[in-house]
Design a protein that fits this description.
The chain is an alpha/beta fold and 418 residues long. The protein is built from 13 helices and 18 strands. The strands form 5 sheets. A 5-stranded parallel beta sheet has the order 4-3-2-5-6, sandwiched between helices. A 5-stranded parallel beta sheet has the order 16-15-14-17-18, with helices on one face. The protein has a 4-stranded parallel beta sheet with strand order 10-9-8-11. Strand 12 and strand 13 form a beta hairpin. It is globular and about 60 Å long.
């Protein structure tokens, strides 16, 4: 039989059946499941329905990343309960405060490989499609059920084909591709769909840029988002794991419910205006907007190249608006330290914080005051997302964010870099 999408193949593999079609309901046994600071809440659900021991603790990862270091006693107590639970259950992969954001850390650690299935109690688990894996976010109750049984039933999704052609212009990044997709197809364009990417653009994207697009497909409503793994991915993984894997690719005659094509060769930098990630315009239409804070970080904008882009913009200058830099992981921070990127950012006046999610979800390390505008490399700008209801959030690529910090308003990066 032929004509299978990636999602059909990956979920058939994970359920132990020879083949599956969209609409089939399968019992999926994921290769890895993970949670973060919400682990303590999941534990309460697990114990509430009589759970005692996690069935496959070696397939579980827990990362403390959403409120680190703990900003309140309540958060600290939450972390303490998680540490005790990890020890009690013998959880195989635990990452302490400072290691970084779950998606970045799991990728760096080589815990998930092409063709594998990963379920996470975080909506941005679509992130792992950058490795050719099937990544899907689940709720806390579903995660508790996964702890207990090691499996979860779900319907195989219909698939959507997105083709990206061309090479990005200088100053435009993978973030702009993701924002343009949201602009054209809206937040609801991929509800319960597998998004499967094709096209020659993918091979031109670096290892730091590729995760941005599958990650942000969570804002698109996607169930998962897949990039076909290539030699660059295989090389990346050689340095991180010796586990064997066989990558999966959709068949040439696979059926797609919808298709979309984007030529990125003339794509302008994009800006998501408040208060929706799909309220996107070309940078031209946002120029001159005052901002009080700029934030470079999160699982869509805190990798090394994001920090390096920002350093290229601010080097030798002084910022006018607050610039908060939060690396996505300790590895990213270390590399940025060794190359002088962090020094350039600090000299310009930036504030550097512990690897983690920080203000992205409104916990700490950069909560804006009422009516203060933030421009961010993050993935979401819903009203109140960064902790303050009446504080607008704009989303853009690192060049634009850094340049805006220098000028105190949204500007063209080349005006700052000249």
């Amino acid at each position: 039989m032929t004509g299978f999408t990636f999602a059909e193949k990956a979920l058939a593999r994970a359920s132990g059946v020879s083949g599956a079609r969209a609409g089939d309901v399968l019992d999926i046994r994921p290769d890895l499941i993970f949670s973060h600071d919400n682990t303590a809440a999941i534990r309460k659900i697990f114990l509430g329905f009589g759970g005692k021991n996690i069935l496959h603790p070696n397939r579980v990862a827990v990362t403390l990343d959403h409120a680190v270091p703990a900003p309140t006693t309540l958060h600290a107590q939450n972390h303490a309960e998680i540490r005790a639970w990890v020890q009690e259950q013998g959880i195989g992969h635990f990452f302490e405060v400072g290691r970084g954001i779950c998606h970045q850390v799991i990728s760096e650690e080589g815990l998930i490989l092409p063709s594998e299935v990963i379920f996470g109690s975080d909506s941005h688990t679509t992130h792992f499609g950058w490795l050719g894996a099937f990544g899907m976010g689940v709720g806390r109750t579903e995660m508790a059920a996964l702890w207990a049984t090691g499996e979860l039933w779900l319907a195989v999704p219909q698939a959507m084909k997105i083709t990206l052609n061309g090479k990005l212009p200088i100053g435009t990044t993978a973030k702009d591709i993701a924002l343009r997709i949201l602009r054209d197809l809206t937040l609801h364009g991929a509800q319960y769909r597998s998004i499967e990417f094709f096209g020659d653009t993918i091979s031109t994207l670096s290892m730091d840029e590729r995760p941005v697009i599958p990650n942000m497909m969570a804002e698109f409503g996607a169930m998962n988002a897949y990039f076909p793994p290539d030699e660059a991915i295989f090389t990346y993984l050689v340095q991180r794991t010796s586990r064997p894997y066989i990558p999966l690719y959709p068949d040439a005659d696979a059926h797609y419910e919808a298709e979309y094509t984007l030529d990125v060769s003339s794509l302008a930098p994009q800006v998501a205006m408040p208060h929706e990630p799909d309220n996107v315009v070309d940078l031209d239409h946002a120029i001159g907007t005052p901002i009080q804070q700029a934030f470079i970080g999160t699982c869509t904008g805190g990798r090394y190249e994001d920090l390096a882009m920002a350093a290229d913009v601010v080097r030798g200058k002084k910022i006018r608006s607050r610039l908060i830099i939060i690396p996505a992981s300790a590895d990213v921070m270390l590399r940025a330290t060794q190359t002088g990127v962090l020094a350039d950012l600090i000299m310009a006046g930036a504030s550097i914080a512990t690897p983690g999610c920080g203000p992205c979800m409104g916990n700490h390390l950069g909560i804006p005051a009422t009516d203060e505008a933030t421009i961010s490399t993050g993935s979401r700008n819903f009203k109140g997302r960064m902790g303050t209801t009446d504080a607008p959030v704009y989303l853009a690529n690192p060049y634009v964010v850094a340049a805006s910090a220098v000028c105190g308003e949204i500007v063209y990066p080349n005006e700052v870099m000249e």
